[in-house]
Amino acid sequence: MPTATGSDEKTQSYFPRWKLKTSGVIMPEERLSWGQTIVSGLQHCVAMSGATIIAPLLMGFDPNVAVLFSGVGTLIFFVVVAGRVPSYLGSSFAYIAVVIAATGYAGQGPNPNLPVALGGIVGAGVLYGLISLVVMWSGVGWIERLLPPAVTGAVVAAIGLNLAPVAVKAVSANAFDTWIGLATVLIISVVAVAAPGLWRRLPIILGAAGGYLLYLLFANGFGFGKPIDFTQLSAAPWLGLPNFTAPSFHADAIFLIAPVAVILVAENLGHIKAVGAMTGRSLDAYLGRALFADSVATIVAACGGGTGVTTYAENIGVMAATKVYSTLLFAFAALVSILLGFSPKFGALILSIPGPVIGGLSIVLFGLIAAMAGRIWVENKVDFANPANLITVAVALTAGAGDLTLKFGAFTIGGIATATFGAIILYQILTSPLAQRAD
């Protein structure tokens, strides 16, 4: 039976026996009253909603399906880690660049090559699962050697920079779209910096709402842009089945998308360690399970038309603010997400978000992905006086931002995969014993 790491008390069952506690720090194996659990669970739904909704829109996925499978994935995670690791699984932004590259998505409306993207995401999930099995067997030391902070940060930055042209194009159709996009950026920025309390943790969803209302006012009200069409929203029923889509498997798309698994491993590793630090106990014993759960959730989502999923920093932020780590909150939040997935009215509302508003959100979100690299480097005190670190980062950034594409017969490797594999291989070469002897 699993033991509660960091505690002398052995568990007697697969799941914890959640003990009621209504004040102070609430640990994963504790719970709030049921009323407080519902309210706190809804708070986690709000926290995840911005990114989980926007990510599928940027790839041309159905947001209803993505939200539904984020709930399903969170429940899978909850079961696999035995209810001992608090986490919500939402749409992963790591897939956006490679999905756009693999499908040639134009950035508006449904993705006509969605099945191709889904096949690639299944491939990423399978690779992710294989890595998780190795972690269960051998531990995480090899991952930390293969993906040190210099490499992880370089790949994260390359993803953000690779996506930058997509964001700029989304707000460049005309002057009105540009101003709406920039206004959306400004709203997000002000909320993130100056909003009171918990509102400060919801800049994406509040920015989307603010940009939507501005567009509605100036386009529908004053005629400066193409009006929002509410026909589909009015016609959509409140309850109904989502538009599930099956994957199709193409070797070039799989080869392009599957390397994202490497990024997700590093991301999940960081999140698990962050939660462990906040709760004051090591969760390393559950890391292999967490990776495996994430991989299974990704495969299940892609088999039905959902995006790949990952553990969410947004929800970790909520836990840091509230000091409530009860895993039951995430089970409740997952059930709410599943219910939202069965509301076509909800999906139609999301799909009515104007293109320039999504573009403004993209400018911020893609920029944050790139900026996260700086945080990784600073927190881990990466030494850029070391030529191995400096050259690895320089090459990865250029390959990612310039979308360096390599062709091997029928296989094509896009900029993200080139940056990822290039950074990993180059760093190992530059830090090899042979290079050190030459030095």
Automatic annotation (TrEMBL):
InterPro entries: NCS2, Xan_ur_permease. It comes from the Bacteria. It is a multi-pass membrane protein. It is found in: Cell membrane. The chain crosses the membrane at residues 65-82, 88-107, 114-140, 146-167, 179-198, 204-223, 244-266, 286-312, 324-342, 348-372, 408-430. Its main location: membrane. Pfam families: Xan_ur_permease (PF00860). Keywords: Cell membrane, Membrane, Transmembrane, Transmembrane helix, Transport. Belongs to the nucleobase:cation symporter-2 (NCS2) (TC 2.A.40) family. This is Pyrimidine utilization transport protein G. It comes from Bradyrhizobium agreste. The lineage of its organism: Bacteria, Pseudomonadati, Pseudomonadota, Alphaproteobacteria, Hyphomicrobiales.
